[in-house]
Design a protein that fits this description.
Helix content of chain A: 25-40%
Number of domains of chain B: 2
Structural class of chain B: mainly alpha
Largest sheet of chain B: 3 strands, antiparallel
Shape of chain A: elongated
Distance between the termini of chain A: 37 Å
Largest sheet of chain A: 6 strands, mixed
Low-confidence stretches of chain B: 1-19
Order of helices and strands of chain A: EEEHEEEHEHHEHEEEHEEEEH
Mean pLDDT of chain B: 88
Number of helices of chain B: 12
Oligomer: heterodimer
Strand order of the largest sheet of chain B: 2-6-3
Structural class of chain A: alpha/beta
Strand order of the largest sheet of chain A: 6-8-9-3-10-11
Number of helices of chain A: 7
Helix content of chain B: 55-70%
Strand content of chain B: 5-15%
Strand content of chain A: 25-35%
Shape of chain B: elongated
Low-confidence stretches of chain A: none
Chain lengths: 299, 359
């Protein structure tokens, strides 16, 4: 990652609403020109983090750089577009008006890109946004966001209003747009199954803190499920994320220190299996919950 | 996981690198956006203003013709011109209705142009959309306010000129003072200053309350309160001139019919009398008055004026001469503009402190 350009760099970013911390000491680096999956349960701080990155919400503390430039609320730094969960559009504007809105309010505008997106999803240009279906509204909002040719595109639950077929098509198109441009896409979701084949970089949030971040393939390579005879510890060194014991059998999900070094299982009777992305996320979230409860109990 | 799997659908579309990316935005873009968002309010107010201005000009011409027919004096009662002027649906009544409408024009502007600027964006959550583009929130705000404010100013400047002309014609024909509380608020620059003020206040209330309907109720309450306050307070914005008058003397405004009597009534009630003075300027109490005129214990007919005249009593009259009308207009217009400035400062602060979230 150090060799790659960094799209977003956060240093101890925190955000407090009254007495409630939405984000606490978030530090991470996200690579440029990738699709970053921001995952977390409801209330984990995903929308808050995206809002801060986009510059519409100031952080309570910490530093945030987008493409090396400090994020300033309402400032003209790096070009970041954000698509909110509810995909707000001007209800009395036609779809064509929305594209003109994008052209009118952005320094850079790519009409063909926006039109092309709408054509692909058969969204009529002359229809008022208030009369569009939820899925069509999402497409219009995406077209406006893409048309502004941002360097970072933040999509908060972008697939929420889409049917399964549209989800597949939209994710595929987003992947293609990212591949064809120098854009970094960050999309948030709390539905782990939505991530399949979408994100190539993961940022996992739990209770406002980053739990796990990294390249998805590298993360998957560093996590293994070991099954073998009942034991207190797995057969390889690493961080135990999950341990299950039956009468004669133990199962461990282990985060290895270094994926480049293939684990050598010397203990007889043990097998190692890769974990899926879903399992990896759920396991980390559960481990994070346990750690938090332990901390609370200790306090 | 295959990170960048291309879907067949994507493979068939044109390469976006060939797209027609260009520079956009700018003032022209904001002009279009402002027009597109507020076009019905803008068109509606344009049409209504054109109708009212045309109507007022027609009435002014019609009333002036009748005034000329009466040799540039008030038409005598029972004359044909008087009957036409004061008919049930005649020009005088129409002029009174129109001046009333003009008095409430600033409220309509605040309601339908000012309040929706931010309240509707909050309600529809479109501020997030607007403020996450390249145009900064502050530039978005000031450009919209400048464009809409300029429109309001031009529109109400024309309306003010037409109303002022009509008010002068009305005053000539009816003898009503231009300083009176019916005409004074719609003359000079007041409709213009008031409209700009209530436009700004409407924007501020919309920004603070974030809901269109409650903000509308708030501006209605604030407007009515301010109008009542002005009507109560304006006669004494500058210390009135004063004089002591005998009841048989003409009013100090006899030769200045557009002036305003602030206070000058003699009040005599059972066991109380006020605003009566003897020649050296000492106030005459009810006891003094009964001593001078014992018959006042059971007053009737012309006993009171007779008593006042017989004893050479004076009354204290305070008044504003018509020459002060421009000063009064300037004071109230300055108040309106100061209120507008406060409202705009509040809007700026609110916008700077408004934190939006995508969730």
């Amino acid at each position: 990652m150090n060799e790659q350009a960094v799209a977003v760099e956060a240093g101890d970013v925190s955000k407090r609403y009254g007495k409630v911390w939405a984000l606490r000491e978030c530090s991470f680096q996200l690579p440029a020109n990738r699709i970053i999956a921001l995952v977390g349960a409801n209330g984990a701080g995903k929308s808050t983090l995206m809002s801060i990155i986009s510059g519409i919400l100031p952080a309570t503390s910490g530093s945030l750089l987008v493409n090396g430039q400090a994020v300033v609320k309402g400032g003209g730094g790096s070009r970041v577009a954000i698509l909110a969960q509810d995909k707000p559009l001007y209800r009395d504007f036609t779809v064509a008006d929305m594209l003109r809105f994008g052209r009118s309010t952005n320094r850079v505008w790519d009409q063909r890109r926006a039109l092309s997106w709408l054509e692909r999803f058969d969204v009529p240009l002359d229809r008022r946004c208030g009369k569009l279906s939820g899925g069509q509204k999402a497409q219009v909002a995406l077209a406006v966001a893409l048309g502004s040719r941002p360097t970072v595109l933040l999509l908060d639950e972008p697939l929420a209003n889409l049917d399964p077929v549209a989800r597949t098509e939209v994710t595929a198109e987003l992947l293609a747009e990212t591949a064809d441009s120098d854009m970094t896409v960050m999309l948030s979701t709390h539905i782990v199954a939505e991530l399949s084949g979408v994100g190539d970089h993961l940022l996992l949030l739990d209770a406002g803190r980053p739990v796990l971040t990294g390249d998805v393939e590298q993360l998957l390579a560093r996590h293994l499920r070991f099954t073998g005879p009942r034991a207190d510890r797995p057969p390889v060194p690493g961080t135990i994320l999950q341990a299950q014991h039956a009468a004669r059998q133990s199962t461990f999900v282990v985060q290895l220190a270094d994926a480049a070094v293939a684990p050598a299982i010397v203990a007889p009777g043990w097998t190692a299996q890769p974990v899926s992305l879903d399992e990896l996320i759920v396991t980390h979230l559960k481990a994070s919950h346990r750690a938090r409860k332990d901390l609370e109990a200790a306090a | 996981m295959s990170a960048l799997t291309h879907h067949p659908l994507a493979a068939n579309r044109p390469d976006s690198r060939e797209s027609n990316t260009g520079r956009a935005g700018g003032v022209a873009g904001m002009v279009w956006l402002t027009w597109r968002q507020h076009r019905w309010a803008v068109l509606g107010s344009l049409v209504l203003t054109a109708i009212f201005v045309g109507w007022m000009l027609y009435l002014s011409i019609d009333m002036t013709n009748l005034y000329h027919q009466c040799h540039d004096t008030q038409c005598p009662p029972f004359s044909a011109q008087h009957a036409r002027l004061f008919a049930a649906d005649g020009p005088i009544l129409q002029a009174e209705i129109l001046t009333l409408v003009v008095q409430y024009t600033p409220l309509l502007i605040g309601l339908f142009i000012g309040v929706p600027v931010l309240a509707r964006e909050h309600e529809q959550r479109t501020l997030l959309l607007a403020w996450s583009q390249d145009v900064s929130p502050v530039r978005w705000l000031w450009t919209k306010l400048a464009l809409l404010g300029l429109f309001v100013a031009i529109l109400t400047a024309v309306l003010s000129a037409a109303t002022d002309h009509l008010a002068h014609v009305y005053s000539n024909i009816t003898g009503a003072s231009l300083f009176g509380n019916r005409i004074f608020p719609v003359t000079g620059m007041l409709p213009l200053a008031g409209s700009v003020c209530w436009f700004a206040v409407g924007v501020a209330l919309g920004a603070a309350i974030r809901r269109t309907l409650p903000a509308m109720f708030a501006i209605i309450a604030a407007f009515i309160g301010t109008i009542l306050g002005i009507q109560w307070r304006y006669p004494t914005l500058i210390e009135p001139q004063f004089t002591y008058l005998r009841p048989d003397q003409p009013s100090p405004l006899a030769a200045d019919r557009n002036g305003l009597i602030v206070n000058g009534l003699i009040e005599i009630r059972p066991d109380a009398a006020s605003n009566l003075y003897d020649a050296p300027g000492h106030e005459v109490t009810y006891t003094d008055l009964v001593r001078m005129c014992p018959e006042l214990k059971n007053p009737s007919g012309t006993m009171i004026p007779d008593c006042v005249t017989r004893n050479h009593l004076l009354t204290y009259v305070t008044y504003q001469p018509s020459s002060r009308i421009p000063e009064f207009h300037l004071i109230i217009a300055s108040g309106y503009l100061a209120l507008a400035a406060v409202a705009l400062a509040a809007v700026w602060l609110i916008v700077r402190r408004t934190n939006l979230s995508a969730g």
